[in-house]
TrEMBL record, chain A:
GO terms for biological process: response to zinc ion; transmembrane transport; zinc ion transport. SUPFAM superfamilies: ABC transporter involved in vitamin B12 uptake, BtuC. This is High-affinity zinc uptake system membrane protein ZnuB. It is found in: Cell membrane. The chain crosses the membrane at residues 6-29, 41-74, 86-107, 127-145, 174-202, 214-233, 239-258. Belongs to the ABC-3 integral membrane protein family. PANTHER family: ABC-TRANSPORTER METAL-BINDING PROTEIN, HIGH-AFFINITY ZINC UPTAKE SYSTEM MEMBRANE PROTEIN ZNUB. InterPro entries: ABC_BtuC-like (IPR037294), ABC_TroCD (IPR001626).
Automatic annotation (TrEMBL), chain B:
Residues 241-260 are annotated as: Disordered. SUPFAM superfamilies: P-loop containing nucleoside triphosphate hydrolases (SSF52540). Pfam families: ABC_tran (PF00005). GO terms for molecular function: ATP binding; ATP hydrolysis activity. This is Zinc transport system ATP-binding protein. Keywords: ATP-binding, Cell membrane, Ion transport, Membrane, Nucleotide-binding, Translocase, Transport, Zinc, Zinc transport. Signal peptide: none annotated. SMART domains: AAA (SM00382). Residues 6-223 form the ABC transporter domain. InterPro entries: AAA+_ATPase, ABC_transporter-like_ATP-bd, ABC_transporter-like_CS, Metal_Ion_Import_ABC, P-loop_NTPase. It comes from Paracoccus laeviglucosivorans. GO terms for biological process: response to zinc ion; zinc ion transport.
């Protein structure tokens, strides 16, 4: 059954969605959209490094994404503006990555697959990475759930309850780094943050609690993966962008249906 | 004297960029079962004092000692709840420690907003939200309630009921209360100890002592006359508290109390 590329693509997409539904909700609640965008763009440097040192690109992207999160935390802690720090680091990393890629023949040919994703080409070992990463993210979020929610509602209330918001923020950065690493093959560096934000934004209208929003975002993401893949097959469109376009359509419908 | 729940020693706090400290050399403690109220004009550092005691702002010098594992119920002066996060009152009460439906219903009843469980936090009126914040602070058997202007936005009967509730809860559970308030008249009746703050501790002691203190009358002018009248008849006969009348720096003056 796993021999069919379409089945593999479906399993990969649904695995990713398992992580992006809940994490994407946090990205929306905490206004981390730009952070997500920057991390995924920076991951191109990780891809280049992985090719240069011939290791699995999952490790390289993960390392660069984690490194970027720590660097950003450190610089903003020293009084630099978040937007500026992100803009500088992420785009420097992206530019360096593109530059490096031009020197690596194996990557020069394949760069598109990492910028725009290539879900139809995922292999069995990709599936292990993707599901392993997605379950790790989900486990991380479930483990810290009450603390993460409290810290996202209001940091002052969280601190008074003995929660360390800086630590919870780091947990989210780590989860984001893992998602970037596993999503880059599926939707591509340019569209990872859309995969996080669009289903969560669409879920907002249906939800009355944070849990309902995370659940609905997961469901909407799954629906988008299934519909997007079939649309891509029938219409011969690129798969990653098709998935995002379907989520965007669901978002538009949710706006109209739940206009209050 | 039993061990203080929370104790500040020679605490100085400056905000970044400001040349003068917001609080200088503040020492104060809160004993179990005690109701302590901080009064002072706008900008006198009341919220900063509260936040420093809770460990929310860094100290420039001095230190704060908190009892190990101290359970605090906190109502900040201003709480911003992100609208992007759907949140019912019921769910909010379970952050970060889950409470049963029965506990949630009981505490909402007590704070005068029964049956609000399924409402969205963002859709509450200012006074309703204030009562929900108080309800959340009362849950999980706190040892210390920290309430920064808790009666803001409450209607007149609500304010009266609020102070009655605080007294009741103290009777039942022995909770200590640190409160910031501008309701001078009520404060004087409801507190065991009053701290008059203006960048430093101007004067502190029982309500009788503080309302007679020249520093207090200098700070509050005409309004202080009202509270003084409340206690004038006590004051002539009640000199037991004079030794509790502590002077901060820059508040030096001669004692006008007749020696008993
Ligand atoms: N985050 C901050 N950064 C810089 N200055 C601050 C900050 N917070 C408070 N201040 C300043 O510190 C001083 C004390 O503020 P604080 O909020 O403690 O006053 P307050 O006594 O609670 O006043 P109010 O009665 O208006 O609530 C004010 O002059 C204020 O401008
Ligand atoms: Mg204040």
């Amino acid at each position: 059954m796993l021999d069919d590329f379409l089945i593999r693509a479906l399993i990969a997409g649904l695995g990713l969605v398992l992580a992006t539904g809940a994490l994407g909700s946090f990205v929306v609640w905490r206004r981390m959209a730009y952070f997500g965008d920057s991390t995924s763009h920076a991951a191109i440097l990780g891809v280049a490094l992985s090719f240069a040192f011939s290791m699995p690109f999952y490790l390289g992207t993960l390392a660069v994404a984690v490194g970027m999160a720590l660097l950003v935390a450190w610089l903003t802690g020293r009084g630099q503006g978040m937007d500026t720090v992100l803009g500088v680091i992420a785009h420097s990393a992206l530019a360096t990555g593109l530059l490096a890629a031009s020197f690596i023949p194996g990557l020069r040919m394949n760069l598109d697959a990492f910028l725009f994703g290539d879900i139809l080409a995922v292999t069995r070992s990709d599936l292990v990475w993707i599901w392993g990463g997605a379950l790790a993210v989900l486990g991380l979020l479930v483990w810290r759930w009450q603390r993460l929610i409290t810290a996202s509602v209001n940091e002052e209330l969280a601190v008074a309850a003995g929660i360390n918001p800086k630590f919870e923020r780091l947990i989210l950065s780590l989860a984001l780094a893992i998602v970037v690493a596993i999503a880059i093959r599926i939707v591509g560096a340019l569209l990872i943050s859309a995969m996080l934000i669009v289903p969560a934004a669409a879920a907002r209208g249906f939800a009355r609690t944070p849990e309902q929003m995370a659940g609905s975002a997961t469901f909407i993401g799954a629906l988008a993966v299934v519909c997007g893949l079939f649309a891509s097959l029938r219409l011969d469109t690129p798969a990653g962008p098709s998935i995002i376009v379907v989520s965007a359509a669901i978002y538009a419908v949710s706006l109209v249906a739940y206009r209050k | 004297m039993t061990a203080a729940l929370i104790q500040a020693r020679d605490m100085t706090v400056s905000h970044p960029g400001a040349d003068l400290p917001v609080l200088s050399h503040v020492s104060m403690g809160i004993q179990p079962r005690e109701i302590v109220t901080v009064v002072g004009p706008n900008g006198s550092g009341k919220s900063t004092l509260v936040r420093a005691l809770l460990g929310q702002v860094a100290l420039t010098s001095g230190r704060v000692e908190r009892a190990r594992g101290l359970r605090i119920g906190y109502v900040p002066q201003r709480v911003h709840i992100e609208r992007a996060m759907p949140m019912t009152v019921r769910r909010f009460l379970s952050l970060p420690t889950r409470v049963s439906d029965a506990q949630a219903a009981a505490v909402l009843e007590r704070t005068g907003v029964p049956g609000l469980e399924q409402r969205q936090i963002a859709a509450l009126s200012g006074g309703q939200f204030q009562r929900v914040l108080l309800a959340r602070a009362l849950l999980n058997d706190p040892q210390l309630l920290v309430l920064d202007e808790p009666t803001q936005g409450l209607d007149q009967p609500g304010i009266v009921a609020f102070y009655r509730l605080i007294e009741e809860v103290r009777q039942e559970t022995g909770v200590a209360v640190l409160m910031v308030s501008h309701d001078l008249l009520v404060v004087m009746r409801a507190s065991d100890r009053v701290i008059c703050l203006n960048g430093h501790v101007c004067c502190e002691g029982t309500p009788q002592v503080v309302s007679a203190a020249p520093e207090y009358r200098a700070l509050f002018g005409a309004e202080a006359q009202g509270t003084l009248a409340l206690y004038r008849h006590h004051h002539d006969h009640d000199h037991d508290h004079v030794e509790e009348h502590v002077h901060g720096p820059d508040c030096g003056h001669h004692h006008h109390h007749r020696e008993g």
